[in-house]
Amino acid sequence: MKHAFLLAWLLTFGLRAAAQPATALTARLDQVSLTFALNAAGQPTYAVQLGGRPVVLPSRLGVALADGRGFEGALTLLGAETKDVDETWQPVWGEVRSIRNRYQQLTVHLQQPAAPGRRLDVVFRVFADGVGFRYEWPRQPQLQYFTVTDEHTEFNLPADHKAFWIPGDYDSNEYAYTSSRLSEVDTTPIKAIEKKAAPQRVQTPLMLKSADGLYVNIHEAALVNYPAMMLNVDRQTFRLSSQLVPDGTGTGAKAYLQAPEHTPWRTIVVADNAPAILASKLILNLNEPSKLQDTGWIRPQKYVGVWWEMQVGRASWSYADSSNIKLAGTDWTKLKPNGRHGANTQNVKRYIDFAAQHRIPGVLVEGWNVGWEDWVGNWKEDVFDFVTPYPDFNVAELQQYAAAKGVQLIMHHETAGSATNYERRQDAAYRFMQQHGYAAVKTGYVGRIIPRGEHHDGQWMVNHYVRTAQKTADSRLMVNMHEAVRPTGLHRTYPNWLANEAARGNEFNAFAEGSPPEHETILPFTRLMGGPMDYTPGIFKLQGYAAGAPQRQLHSTLAKQLALYVTLYSPLQMAADLPENYNEHLDAFQFIEDVPVDWDDTRILQAEPGDYLTIARQGKGTQEWYLGAITDENARQQTVKLDFLPAGRKYQAVIYADAPGASWDKNPAAYRISRQTVTSRSTLKLPLAPGGGAAVSLKPLAQ
Amino acid sequence: MKHAFLLAWLLTFGLRAAAQPATALTARLDQVSLTFALNAAGQPTYAVQLGGRPVVLPSRLGVALADGRGFEGALTLLGAETKDVDETWQPVWGEVRSIRNRYQQLTVHLQQPAAPGRRLDVVFRVFADGVGFRYEWPRQPQLQYFTVTDEHTEFNLPADHKAFWIPGDYDSNEYAYTSSRLSEVDTTPIKAIEKKAAPQRVQTPLMLKSADGLYVNIHEAALVNYPAMMLNVDRQTFRLSSQLVPDGTGTGAKAYLQAPEHTPWRTIVVADNAPAILASKLILNLNEPSKLQDTGWIRPQKYVGVWWEMQVGRASWSYADSSNIKLAGTDWTKLKPNGRHGANTQNVKRYIDFAAQHRIPGVLVEGWNVGWEDWVGNWKEDVFDFVTPYPDFNVAELQQYAAAKGVQLIMHHETAGSATNYERRQDAAYRFMQQHGYAAVKTGYVGRIIPRGEHHDGQWMVNHYVRTAQKTADSRLMVNMHEAVRPTGLHRTYPNWLANEAARGNEFNAFAEGSPPEHETILPFTRLMGGPMDYTPGIFKLQGYAAGAPQRQLHSTLAKQLALYVTLYSPLQMAADLPENYNEHLDAFQFIEDVPVDWDDTRILQAEPGDYLTIARQGKGTQEWYLGAITDENARQQTVKLDFLPAGRKYQAVIYADAPGASWDKNPAAYRISRQTVTSRSTLKLPLAPGGGAAVSLKPLAQ
């Protein structure tokens, strides 16, 4: 539907005079309004308001090109149109059964006033909970192939908001979050994971909170064929400006494009309450529908794996301790086994047995394939071949053993950042998976990227991840990427792309000092805005697990580990601890065994970034509900109304709560399991210990 | 065999004192001697002599590493050993049936005198016709992964030799040769093909001639996992120093290595006569034996192709004239055909018919696959998919048509330099070839390389070419690479790698002004030292062939075009002209039909770089001989003794010669075919026109 008034206005004032319009263009939905205008210099700008309160003050738009004839200066407004969309779609899997996509779109057509007269459109979509916009280059003779060197997108914030941020490292997002005022953003004291970021450069999703209670989240949607956007923070003016991740040539090039083309959507989610941020489907709605026709083979799932024992230093990925191995020409049977190789046939069978006993469909095995002796840190191209098992890992035997027990092994493809090597071997690797009954693969990109000079978050790698999502789909394989760029909702388009890491996961509690208790209360407001995370929760042995670091412990109680299965949404959830540790607490493990990974409905009951989170979800195709509540380092008593349950139906609630005296640091494993009958009129009082949580299963009782 | 005296000497003087040896180490064979010594600064040096005449004066050796702890300074001589080798091997195909590999090897063990005490070996092989040497890094704890930033290999020449050179462009070798003194080397006036070289930087093989009649050729052998070596010329001192092609990061890195590893061989072929240079097998001998066990499927062959008509502008590679095409999402059947598409089914059948009529086994078809509308110059990654034919190219129909006539189509994979795209599609592309009866592929790398920043001749691409040779072999496919790095004898190791372009081919006469008549007299002394070239000779219509450039003509007579099939050795030879042009001269085409592409014996009868060349070869497994004689811009009468023929046997000689009055510029198509009976005691007088040549077939007469 076109807004005739706007076109009429343009025809009257804008197009006919070919002069800059005196008036701004506006789009709005409910309380959110977006204003586009050319500033005094003729440059395009936009601003966002929520119910009359400024969210983003007038902020510049623009794109610089390598040939010096980009879109940085004055532009002429050729015209504009709006349309209203209100539609509903069903995700293949997700937090809710059905998603409403309702927005008003404003498309602005711009042109360079002088030769070459290149054209640029800016498309805004205004939702009830925020705004998305992107640059689009229409097909035009004056612009075909071009190189973006800078994007001049700005977000002028009206005040010195509190921000939850991580450094703008082009190669890693595995940082703990810092909460600070914008005026205090400084990455200097933070130890670099890969490369040091500029002192005032941060990553998205960036979560912001204003002094007067506005919650604002800035990120991007549908990152394809373009580098990731980081943000440079001006600590005086509170202006955020886009910083695109450069390519590998060292020339300052950011993106090589061919018109017609468009950037990803820049997203601003805004609400006057924190739960509304978490409930937003704006980013998903800005992604394209599924490219896969047949999705029946895609199966959200829980899994265990030969993994934590390596993370904590009790087993090794490698078969031998030899260093300086070359993939070609090594006879692996001649190496001296180190006796600590985790991925040996007998050990894997233990995990298969445990999975089969506890209705866990998947078993990940890392370190199964040759090349781990000196895989990391050498910028080595031929690092893995993805098809040759170590001598003590019997692929065929394990395939049969797992199949007989109704379990499927999950493949692991660590690339060590050597993406070129992976790409040239993907065909063979996926054939190998199909031949040996694997349905899902976890990929990894630890270390410096090859093609050398490229970044994890640059255009070339962004395209690699998307190609890998498509290529795995072509072979009907699910994929879970670690160390890839943080997600931007592309799991809508590629529903076989179940999860990503792309943040600091639970593993940091294994091999390093870990993350503070608030970490998991921030993740949903930041990293998870883009999509599911393979966080690998479920650690039951919370102290004394790390070989060589006896004092190390999780910053979590056991009950909180259970709650994470609800609060950190993912269709792929690991039960990350060792079978022997679960066997010590099988009563608690029952919650992990019960909890679904796919949902019909989700309610964000309580939320405050950095503080607490309470979420209830209804299992897909069931009447069962599951509830998770977590807190930061502070104890809390959360009062939860169960009014999301269907009226008049009795439920048995099983409550997995911190026991009195529990705390993450002193007494993390103290939990108490209680049962009670509840209805939609019941209220639960959940005591959360410092660093604690509570998990509740709610199953309907027979009528 | 160890030379006990040398070891004893070392134990006495070298190792025990851990001081620099007072005496040099020497290896020699016949007239060639090699001397290794540490200079006053303790740096390793070498020198080469031929019969007491200096070939290379004492010259520095050394390698710099990125960590600053390389092999540039003083080194300690740990020891040395020599061995003598004399063996004979049979190439899968080639210029001769059997090759003798006879050399004395001197291995010098060096170590850094201070921490980290890294070790470096230099291995010299002294042949009767020159020297090869390389750097080797043994396995050692103090050096595992390392990055080479410079190789300080020098060639100090004793005088201001005449040199035949092309600019040291990292991305192209398609230059005409300049003949000049070393003191006059200057690439400034030369138009760059890809990137401009530094003014005094030239490529190898570099052919040199001293004032007193020494012929010296400098190149490298077995270029694997290392960048190509170019040479910087010092015009005052006549010192050549190695310049490795850099990688794509812009950091100055040249090669990423892992010990144990070695560089390619640096080769110096030397003789007191020009034919001995061409007869040298030194470079082949320095390459590894074939990696392929079964080579029965490898078939040297002639071919025709849908190619010259595009080169001369009479047909197009593309199906449509649309520009700005994207590979993904384009419906090629909806494009408007331009009506000039060469690779259409009917046109291809014409070539198949011609090939079948004239015993030509192969038909190359370029432009068969989608993507040619704007393939070049855009640094575009997804440029071709290698499996989708244009709508007017019927793969199955042509496969059947060709097979019925005993002809095989040759596949074409132009990559436009997008090697990453090719690598990720190679598996599918080679499966497609196997499914459709293709046995050979011509690859191309026109344009800037992707991974962006990499060079055609850098380490990453060198590895790509070698991988492609191995990967095609794995699928039993032959390969012919265009725009790849110049060869270094790797066809011994990968005999399915039939040919390369890697120099200025005949095509420059089609789309540009071409090469001077001397060009083909220089190529065997330069580019062909490394391996066969797909030069695409055999143009019969020598004037008026280029659409839009009616004055353009070849710098060759027709008879010379025939002679090239003998003088430019290749197991893959195109008959490059159009069938209709051959049909005008079927009597001359008989030579192309007859001439083999694989040989039992070869005699370099007359040779002088830049002037003339006369070569006779005996067809593989036959008693037939073929002779080619060519000249530069000067007419010559060459007197050729046929004493290479078996004594006492009568042969019919068919002589394809320039007719009186022929010349490349005024009367190029004037040829005369004559027949005479000859024996080993006969002498032929071959009149060569300016830019002319002569071709002779010699078939034994029935006894």
Report what the structure shows:
Two copies of one chain form a homodimer. By secondary structure, chain A is α+β, with helices and mostly antiparallel strands. Chain A has three domains: 2-157 and 216-285, Beta-galactosidase, Chain A, domain 5 (Distorted Sandwich), CATH 2.70.98.10; 289-502, TIM Barrel (Alpha-Beta Barrel), CATH 3.20.20; 537-703, Aldolase class I (TIM Barrel, Alpha-Beta Barrel), CATH 3.20.20.70. In chain A, 16% of the residues lie in helices and 32% in strands. Chain A has 13 helices and 36 strands. In chain A, strands 6, 7, 8, 9, 12, 13, 15, 16, 20 and 21 form a ten-stranded antiparallel sheet that branches. In chain A, strands 27-26-25-24-23-22-28 form a seven-stranded parallel sheet. A six-stranded antiparallel sheet of chain A has the order 29-30-31-36-33-34. The longest helix of chain A is centred in the middle third of the chain and has 17 residues, at 419-435. Chain A is globular and about 70 Å long. Chain A starts with a helix and ends with a strand. The A-B interface holds A 139, 144-145, 247-251, 253, 256, 258-259, 323-324, 326, 374, 378-381, 420, 423-424, 426-428, 451-454, 460, 463, 467 and B 139, 144-145, 247-251, 253, 256, 258-259, 323-324, 326, 374, 378-381, 420, 423-424, 426-428, 451-454, 460, 463, 467.
